[in-house]
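Re-run requested by the PI after the first attempt was lost when the workstation crashed. Everything re-entered from the original request form. Ligand of interest: pyridoxal-5'-phosphate.
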Amino acid sequence: VEDTIAEYVKKYKNVDTNRDEVVIVPGGKPIMFFTILALVEEGDEVIYPNPGYPIYESLIRFVGGVPVSMPLVEKNDFRVDIEDLRQKITSKTKMVILNSPANPTGGILTEDDMRQIADLIRGKGIFVLTDEIYSRIVYEGEPVSIATMPGMKDYTIILDGFSKTYAMTGWRLGFGIMHKDIAKKVDRLIANSTSNTAAFTQLAGKEALEGPQTDIDNMVKEFRRRRDFIVERLNSIDGITCKKPQGAFYVFPNITGTGMKSVELADYLLEEANVAVLDGVSFGEYGEGHIRLSYATSMDNIEEALNRIEKALKKLKDK
Ligand code: PLP
């Protein structure tokens, strides 16, 4: 299975690798946990996306590291502000975490972004944990892994898996690509905690990678249709504006026009409209002014949810 994953990574990420650099785990999350545990010591600084997947920050804290926010704001298309990153890098920086396409924003880092980020960290002994779990769910262009940038591969840990690309979330299957010395240490952590990933799950993953990929094309086509619909509907609601995300299956609309804070609005929509959305702040303080909606659900559900959100906001305005 390691060989199949290495071939897949070569083909889809353009990263030259081999079985010694492949670590198979139960889902994408354990790669975050085990590599942060293996590499980050007490007092080390780790730069992480904010808003971003909440587990990054909690894991950095868990191992005694110092979380340093990398703001990804709407006016910058939710991309990395290179000048800000330049200022955040210190002699204590041990790791930078990237996630493209991103949860919760759906934003993508361009090839030029990756080049500039690589230029900032190359040669400083800083590791990059690049969470590429949504890398096959992109609507424009091709995703670029920072591991393809000159001199970066030995310092990059790629996180990917089957939960999103193959909709196999419940199967708990993911993998990491990392330097073989790190892979050996991470393998030891796994062997002594979760033990290895079930063989039958791994074989199912092998089938997914080697079989026809048309289902992914169809899935992304359908996600695109839902994204276009949801963005258009959100923009037609008073108080909400929404940029079109370029990847993943989330929208991160700006809700400042409602006059409510993110948490307040999320609670209101749950109580009043029975619609569960996530407040932007649960992804970090730079998520304030936004809520996150997932469109990994049917068109009927999306339409119903948007009707209810619109009605609930109208009611608020009419009060
Ligand atoms: N990384 C990101 C950015 C995610 O959004 C998720 C799941 O929501 C994961 C990793 C974890 O995926 P898995 O279910 O494979 O552990």
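Saved to the shared folder this time. The longest helix spans residues 214-235.
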